[in-house]
Each structure stands twice: as C-alpha cells, then as structure tokens.
Amino acid sequence: MKILITSDSHGLTTEVNMLKQRHEDEVAAYIHCGDSELPFDAPEMEGYYRVAGNCDYDRAYPEVEELTASELPILITHGHLYGVKSSLRPLEKLAAEKDAKIVCYGHSHVARADVIDGRLYINPGSIRLPKQSPYPTYCILSYEDRIATVRYYTLGGEEVPELEKSVTFK
C-alpha cells in the first residue's frame, strides 16, 4: 500500500495535478494537508483526501479527516489549530484520542517525519514555499509487513534519502 502526501501548495494547480498523474499507477490514495488555496471542489483537488489550512477559505474543507488504509488508522490535519510550528504535543493528544497510527500534517512547510509513542507524524513540506530545504517536497508513505516507510521527493521527482523514516507497528 502506498499513499502520496502533499501540503501547502498555495494556489498551484499544474503541480498538484502532475503529482497525481506521476504516481497514479503506484499509489492507492492521495492526501493534501491543507493550504491548497483552491476551492474544495476544484478539479485539481479531486481524488485527494483534503483538509482546511489557515489559507483555505472554502468552508467545505474539514478541519480533520480520518481514513483507514491497510488497517492503519490515519489522521489528517493542517496543524495550524494545533500549534505544530512550536510543538507536536497538541497533535499528539489528538492522535491518541483518535487512536491514529499515522498523522499527516502541514503548516510549517518543513519536510520531516517523527516517531513519537509508536505513532508516525508526517509533514511532507511544501511544494511551493519550502522552509529548511532548498527544494519543494512531497512524500510517499508505503506500508508492508507492518513496516511504514516515508520517502521524500523533490517536485521534480528526485528522492531525498536523508529525510526517509521507517517505523514498525506491532
């Protein structure tokens, strides 16, 4: 099972579509962690599990989305309502309440993956305005034999191996 995760595209349309097209034969789902700045029903957002970011004004976007993939409970939020730029603690509390194993969030524009209390927290970075990285990023989560692995890619499709993170779920 593989899921493409992106965030903080801030009005980009061609690139959001390009990611779907590039990986359509290998991923089972697409996640956008907010700040697309597009209407909820924009054609570019079709097929994405999506949430509201602080720059998304269409009220159709939910603040939090949940899904289950390969028996893994996944929680999606932008992160601005949980203070992710300063701490993941409030997001950790939400993840525990929802019993999520994977948490996808954005807002900080910083590509990173953390394992905290057996949960995998994934920020794909930004495909428009990256911070602490010289290039825009997105990532792909794969899950097989109880091992979840996050691999990061530049917008051009080149892997960024130093950001890779894996966790084994029991």
From TrEMBL:
It comes from the Bacteria. The keyword Nucleus does not apply. Residues 1-145 form the Calcineurin-like phosphoesterase domain. InterPro entries: Calcineurin-like_PHP_lpxH, Metallo-depent_PP-like, MPP_YfcE, Phosphodiesterase_MJ0936/Vps29. CDD domains: MPP_YfcE. Its cofactor is a divalent metal cation. Keywords: Metal-binding. The lineage of its organism: Bacteria, Bacillati, Bacillota, Bacilli, Bacillales. Coiled coil: none annotated. Belongs to the metallophosphoesterase superfamily. YfcE family. This is Phosphoesterase. Its EC number is 3.1.4.-.
